[in-house]
Design goal:
The chain is elongated. α1 runs antiparallel to α2. The chain is an alpha+beta fold. A 5-stranded mixed beta sheet has the order 1-2-5-3-4. It starts with a helix and ends with a strand.
Length: 245
């Protein structure tokens, strides 16, 4: 009889231990449901859905009454956040199409081995080696450089809602004695400015263009060999979508 009672007590303990996981499982399920509700509400940028989902989560966590409408995000702020998210997604989609269109354009023009482009966080960066545009240590555009810039200008005209920051870069080698320019800062800045002036002379709006000289800042490769230095000497065109076109 004692042995049977001991078996019954052991069975009760096993049942209690076996049921403890249900509480943890229920908590995890609730958290997962909350997470997916939030994901769904933010993937469809609808203000009412966002607020309803936000309040449902707060209610599930024990909030009631006025607490449902209080918190770090007010309805107005939520509207702005949703609108910003929608605008950002739209810009990213449009920039992806612009990037793909530019890649096709470069291929048609036969300059894919000269001009390189990349898309990162909605910014399109087009890179052209300095040797393609200028003589070594000079900031005056060569005829060959003007031809490359004309091809770029013809495309830039087609995307008037893109601002273009022209950025000049050099390597870390000091300029030779007797140079027309004081240092690499001045050389890189004048190269960017002369590219800007060329675009304006070809009919582009100056309101879309800025010029920046960055000398040997932001090297693509360590300046430890002539091959790396050559790659670091470049002009970049950073395209960003203007809000409102």
């Amino acid at each position: 009889m004692i042995e049977n009672d001991e078996f019954e007590i052991d069975d009760e303990k096993e049942n209690e231990c076996g049921e403890q996981w249900l509480t943890t499982f229920a908590d995890i399920s609730l958290l997962l449901m909350t997470f997916f509700v939030l994901l769904y509400s933010m993937s469809s940028p609808d203000v009412e859905k966002f607020l309803d989902s936000f309040q449902s989560v707060k209610k599930a966590l024990g909030a009631s009454g006025k607490q449902l409408m209080t918190g770090p995000t007010s309805p107005t702020e939520a509207t702005l956040l949703v609108e910003q998210a929608r605008l950002k997604q739209q810009i990213l989609r449009e920039q992806r199409r612009t990037y793909q269109d530019f890649e096709s354009y470069v291929s048609r023009k036969g300059i894919e081995g000269i001009v390189a482009a990349k898309l990162d966080s909605g910014k399109i960066t087009i890179k052209v080696p300095s040797e393609v545009l200028f003589k070594r240590g000079d900031a005056e555009l060569t005829p060959a450089g003007q031809r490359v810039l004309k091809s770029l200008k013809d495309y830039f005209i087609k995307v008037p809602d893109e601002t273009i920051n022209i950025r000049g870069f050099t390597d870390d080698t000091p300029l030779e004695m007797g140079s027309h320019y004081k240092d690499n800062w001045e050389l890189s800045a004048m190269r960017a400015v002369n590219v800007l002036r060329y675009f304006v002379s070809q009919g582009m709006s100056p309101n879309r263009l800025t010029a920046t000289g960055l000398a040997d800042l932001e090297p693509l490769y360590p300046n430890t060999s002539e091959q790396n230095r050559q790659k670091n000497r470049r002009v970049e065109f950073v395209l960003e979508k203007r809000i409102g076109g």
